[in-house]
Protein: Phosphoacetylglucosamine mutase
Organism: Coccomyxa viridis
Amino acid sequence: MDLAQLREACSKYTKPAGFKPSYGTAGFRAEASLLHSTVFRCGLLMAARALKTGAATGLVVTASHNPVADNGVKLVEPTGYMLDQSWEVWADKLAVAEDTDALCNVIRELYQQEDIPYGSGTVMLAYDTRPSAEELVKAAGSGVQALGGLPIVCGLLTTPQLHWMVRHCNNSLKHTESTYYEEFASGFCTLVKGCKAEPQALTVDCANGVGAEALKTLSERIGAQLSVTLRNTGEGGLNEACGADYVQKERQFPAGMDDRQHGARCASLDGDADRLVYFHGMPAGNLQLLDGDRIAVLAALLIRDTLQKLPSDLPSPSVGIVQTAYANGASTQYIREQLRLETVVTPTGVKHLHAAAEHFDIGIYFEANGHGTVLFKPELIQRLHELGDCHEAAKDLLALVDMINQAVGDALSGILLVEAALRRRGWGLTEWADLYTDLPSRQLKTLTRDSGRKTDFTALQIKVKDRSVVVTADAETRAVTPEGLQSRINDSVSAVPSGRAFVRPSGTEDVVRVYAEAATQQAADDLAAEVARHVYDLAAGIGAPP
Ligand SMILES: CC(=O)N[C@H]1[C@@H](OP(=O)(O)O)O[C@H](CO)[C@@H](O)[C@@H]1O
Ligand SMILES: [Mg+2]
């Protein structure tokens, strides 16, 4: 490491005074103008991580579903997964170092403690459509170079595309953007070949983000087998009243979508195209959401149907579904009782779900918000290859392996998964929705359609003096501190039929989130409001009480 070069580079990216970025659930996020030093330091970190692992790493400049004025970074392991959790502490230490001296000290400590070899690490960089991207990618590249590394700017990509490229690069596979489309398209065409059902039209809300161009290219590669119409492709503001997060949380049709007629098939991506939800118009202009829980269930059905066709002398692979506490209780019950599959609950954040899914031969994981994927164990893939071309079912499963982004949740891959699963069953969205009925739930600032109600749902993400006073256990289903909070939540829940509620500090925003579910919408709303008040009272809420 050339110390003089490092010091000089570090001094060009000073941290704004008082700014204390934290890695959080999925990387750093903040108002874009604050982030130059943070992104530069992430460049340093990923160059060091590349040296430590002896393989290429990745960095995406994106703030996902956040407003356009924000930006952030997502950090990618050589496997294509998110940054190893054991290194998050280094990310935090680097990000908060006050000045050049402090930063160089952290670098020295990192090199010593992690035994980083000297050399040049490769870091693959990508960015989404935010106007602040150009400067921040430059900052990331400078960080990589400051440690003698090689930044490779892969361009404007969805987050999952960059994860996929890093994974393929390190597996010595073709890893161009074009190969990404080819593999996905070819897997999809294999799976729908011979389906009697015709492709059904799907309107996709692209959140005015990077997913629009990528989905356009993918659907052109696939041709007539996929019938998509793209909306919110850049004509409006990024994530502004549109996108997967908006549709899932607000339960509203996105801006620019006039498909409210009964039965219209629609889907939404988020700003960096790693989340996907489906929805359709119901009578009276209402919207029915088909969220990540349902995508997991549909994936499980497709996999079960296919596994049943494998030769019976083959040991059957273990299949499991990983969810978080936000999964609707009805989905968990359906998976356990009807699909008879094991479910595992982990804390929020894909890194936790992904790790749990790796324990199964086929691990399906989805957050309710539509972020997830399916992982196939390498040993299983090997066995499927050995079965060769003579078994249709093995071929189908291998097509699924190609079509599903196994590095990370991918909305484009998700659309192909859903469309293939529905067509192979000859189903529309109604049959999918009819598998089970969601319990009414309430979270975040979901607005009510019934204007007569008084509850202010923005209050369901509570601002408190210090959200770290809320500590949870048992996959975030139990509040350990502040003292007395959980017993108050228990009292509230026990009075409500089919009631369930939990609170947790957000890992991406300075708020405590409240979730509640119950047998009726009114009961879920009331329970959420009551629990919100407990948080406000016991965790030093600020502002007007909920
Ligand atoms: C309730 C909810 O949707 N939480 C989201 C949100 O995390 P929070 O820690 O809740 O802020 O952003 C994460 C990153 O995108 C995502 O993994 C997670 O599911
Ligand atoms: Mg996202």
